[in-house]
């Protein structure tokens, strides 16, 4: 496991974390205010997943596990991204937000087939989960992570020989695919004293014929267009859309910016992620997808809205477009 590390990492553009006095006071007020719309009225639907032993040699398929976790099948290879599969994204799970689907997942960690790689975007609890990594550590041939994140995996029992760390601009080969580590506009840290001590990133996944982009967590910024110019067009994008607020818009895109970022990277089919699992912001739980669908329709963008566990085939004529969240809202 090689690493070139800095004491602190910085975004490419000036970025406010929205933590001024007035913002902090207003956020505390909002946190104390009860709003039933921040969670669905009951457990949301989950489609069971039964992955085949072999993946298709051509095409692009993605299966969303809620929030930012997804399984990607690209040209016969199988990659798992940001596998936070536990019930709560918190260092103290019994006080954190609980998963909307309860304990149900499309596939339990222990049931996963062998993966060519597990790929991480950053070390926040809602993306990097200790319990999930421990259950999956023998299910992956490689772990592809941003700079500084590998040490956490080693402490959790991952073989250091499986781990490679990458900075913005790095490219690495994974089972015949190229993974390009790109910028994101965000931050890192899991405690009070490690802010920005590890890197955060996006990923471009490049096959011989097909290409996929994963935004990681990010505010809107020029890096999306730069990535599109260098690596696009992409057949499929999985873009952050959720847990936003005007007070911290520099580090989490608003849904309309999600659609613009998809256009910037020259995306084909858009899947909005980073929602439908946990309440980490103050908006209604289904506001991200409602706004993203409206913006996509206005801009002529193809958008898929899968249920958790429902596979999206980016090369098929038909893909999930059901407004399933409205069924939960109206109950």
Automatic annotation (TrEMBL):
Q: Where is the Metallo-beta-lactamase domain?
A: 78-275
Which InterPro entries does the UniProt entry name for this protein?
Answer: Metallo-B-lactamas, RibonucZ/Hydroxyglut_hydro
In terms of SUPFAM superfamilies, this protein maps to: Metallo-hydrolase/oxidoreductase
Q: Where is this region: Disordered?
A: 34-55
The record's annotation in Gene3D superfamilies points to: Ribonuclease Z/Hydroxyacylglutathione hydrolase-like
Q: Which GO terms describe its cellular component?
A: cytoplasm
- Catalysed reactions listed for this entry: 3',5'-cyclic UMP + H2O = UMP + H(+); 3',5'-cyclic CMP + H2O = CMP + H(+)
Report the protein's function.
Counteracts the endogenous Pycsar antiviral defense system. Phosphodiesterase that enables metal-dependent hydrolysis of host cyclic nucleotide Pycsar defense signals such as cCMP and cUMP.
PANTHER family membership: N-ACYL-PHOSPHATIDYLETHANOLAMINE-HYDROLYZING PHOSPHOLIPASE D
Name of the protein in its database record: Metallo-beta-lactamase domain-containing protein
Per the UniProt record, the source organism is Paenibacillus lycopersici
């Amino acid at each position: 496991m090689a690493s070139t590390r800095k004491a602190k990492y910085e975004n490419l553009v000036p970025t406010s974390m929205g933590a001024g006095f007035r913002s902090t006071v207003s956020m505390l007020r909002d946190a104390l205010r009860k709003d039933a719309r921040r969670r669905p009225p009951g457990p949301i639907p989950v489609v069971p997943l039964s992955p085949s032993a072999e993946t298709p040699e051509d095409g692009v398929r993605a299966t969303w596990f809620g929030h930012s976790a997804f399984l990607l099948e690209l040209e016969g290879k199988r990659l798992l991204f940001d596998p936070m599969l536990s019930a709560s994204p918190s260092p103290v799970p019994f006080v954190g937000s609980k998963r909307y689907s309860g304990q149900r997942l499309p596939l339990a960690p222990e049931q996963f087939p062998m993966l060519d790689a597990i790929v991480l975007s950053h070390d926040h609890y809602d993306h990097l989960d200790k319990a999930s990594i421990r259950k999956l550590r023998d299910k992956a041939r490689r772990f592809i992570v941003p700079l500084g994140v590998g040490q956490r995996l080693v402490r959790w029992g991952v073989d250091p020989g499986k781990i490679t760390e990458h900075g913005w601009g790095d490219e690495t080969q994974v089972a015949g695919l190229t993974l390009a580590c790109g910028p994101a506009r965000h931050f890192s840290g899991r405690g009070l004293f490690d802010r920005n001590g590890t890197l955060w990133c996006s990923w471009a996944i490049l096959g011989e014929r097909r290409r996929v982009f994963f935004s990681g967590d990010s505010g809107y910024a020029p890096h999306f267009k730069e990535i599109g110019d260098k690596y696009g067009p992409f057949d499929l994008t999985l873009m952050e859309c959720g847990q936003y607020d005007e007070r911290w818009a520099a580090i989490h895109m608003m849904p309309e910016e999600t659609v613009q970022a998809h256009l910037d990277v020259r995306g084909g089919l858009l899947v909005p992620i980073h929602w439908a699992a946990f309440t980490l912001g103050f908006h209604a739980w289904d506001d991200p997808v409602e706004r993203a669908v409206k913006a996509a329709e206005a801009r002529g963008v193809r958008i898929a809205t899968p249920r958790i566990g429902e596979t999206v085939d980016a090369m098929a004529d038909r893909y999930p477009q059901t407004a399933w969240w409205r069924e939960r809202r109206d109950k």
